[in-house]
Specification:
Elements lengths: L1 H22 L21 E9 L7 E3 L5 E6 L6 E2 L4 E5 L2 H26 L3 H34 L6 H30 L3 H26 L2 E3 L4 E6 L6 E3 L2 E4 L4 E3 L2 E4 L5 E8 L13 E6 L5 E9 L4 E2 L14 E8 L13 E6 L2
Antiparallel strand pairs: 1-12, 1-17, 2-11, 3-5, 3-8, 4-7, 5-6, 7-11, 8-9, 9-10, 12-16, 13-14, 13-17, 14-16, 15-16
Helix pairs in contact: 2-5, 3-4
Length: about 350
């Protein structure tokens, strides 16, 4: 019995020793996927950089519509190269189109009235006026003959024609002459055409309607968003059926308003925009001596940088999505470098990189 207890104890001690030995065996560390960025300069200035399209001034073009409405068509795709003026997307313009067509019809009707006034008198109207003058003059001649006959009869025998009949004939002649005078004046008025003030008034009405139609047409054109310049479509945030406004489109990822589209230059031509902390600005060299190196995150690639320009405005450092509500105390100076794209690695606008600038 004692022997068995001794053997069991001995086996437990051996097992514990083996387990302790196995547990203390150190596994070899796995090599890192990439080396952390290292300052290549003795006193280099570190800055966070973001890749953007190669542009002479400013940054990527954020495109916002000038009108609000529902997107009916997306006419381009991300990564597509477009020329200046290329239609990018269409917004529902049914109401504005109807308004434009209505104003066009009103302007055309006003123009027709103006041309009618300028073309007056109408030949057919003038012919009617001339006929009315002839008819009135014939009526005068008939009334005059009646009066003369009655005057002659009254002169031969006063009892043959009553005084009332003679007065009636005289009055009829006077009325016929007055009607003939009115007909001649009406003919002259018709022959003179439209009054100059009527033409001027109609001209102004037509001008006002034409300009209203042009304004409506210009507003209608804004329902088609066009490329302000040649470039590459970097991002399309609007969707067919979605609502966009001059504030942009709602982004479900950031829960904020973003541009409807972002336009940049060719993706093969990239710059890096560095944001240097204001505390480090005294350590920066002059523009002619400035150089830098960029480390691409997730790789061991180091890319030399060539100085392009400094945006001479120190502004708050914005890193979060909701830029308007973020409160920061750090202010930075943007510096732009150019570089040659390294072979074998694809880079995209908006990508963050680490930058070291020689002091």
């Amino acid at each position: 019995m004692r022997k068995m207890i001794f053997l069991a104890s001995f086996a437990g001690v051996v097992g514990a020793a083996v387990l302790a030995f196995v547990a203390n065996i150190a596994e070899p560390a796995m090599p890192p996927a990439f080396n952390p960025p290292v300052n290549p300069y003795p006193n280099g200035v570190y800055a966070t950089g973001i890749l953007e399209s190669d542009q002479p001034t400013g940054s990527n073009v954020n495109i916002y519509p000038e009108v609000a409405g529902t997107v009916t068509r997306i006419l381009v795709s991300e990564g597509e190269t477009v020329d200046a003026g290329t239609p990018l997307l269409a917004i529902d313009d049914s109401v504005q189109r109807a308004t434009t067509e209505q104003l066009q019809s009103q302007a055309e009707a006003s123009l027709a009235q103006l041309e009618e006034l300028r073309a007056a008198p109408r030949p057919e109207t003038l012919a009617v006026a001339d006929a009315q003058v002839v008819s009135a003059e014939a009526a005068v001649k008939s009334a005059q003959e009646v009066m003369q006959k009655r005057q002659a009869a009254f002169g031969l025998n006063p009892k043959a024609v009553s005084k009332d009949d003679l007065d009636t004939a005289v009055n009829a002649l006077a009325t016929a002459r007055a009607n003939a005078d009115v007909a001649r004046r009406q003919r002259d008025l018709t022959r003179a055409g439209a009054w100059v003030y009527e033409i001027r008034n109609q001209e102004r009405q037509y001008t006002a309607l034409r300009k209203a139609h042009l304004a409506a047409s210009a507003q209608l054109a804004k329902y088609t968003l066009r490329a302000p310049r040649a470039g590459t479509v970097l991002a399309v945030t609007a969707a067919v059926g979605g609502f966009i406004s001059p504030q942009g489109a709602f982004d479900s990822y950031t829960q904020g308003m973003v541009p409807a589209m972002v336009l940049g230059t060719n993706q093969g031509d990239l710059h890096v925009r560095c944001y240097v902390d204001e505390i480090l600005l005294p350590r920066l060299p002059g523009p002619k001596k400035m150089k830098g190196q960029m480390s691409i995150r997730g790789s061991n690639v180091k890319v030399p940088l060539e100085y392009v320009r400094t945006q001479p405005l120190v502004s708050p450092k914005i890193e979060l999505s909701d830029q308007r509500l973020e409160r920061v105390d750090v202010r930075v100076l943007p510096i732009i470098f150019r570089f040659a794209s390294p072979p074998g690695i694809r880079l995209f606008p908006g990508q963050l990189v680490d930058v070291y600038i020689a002091e």
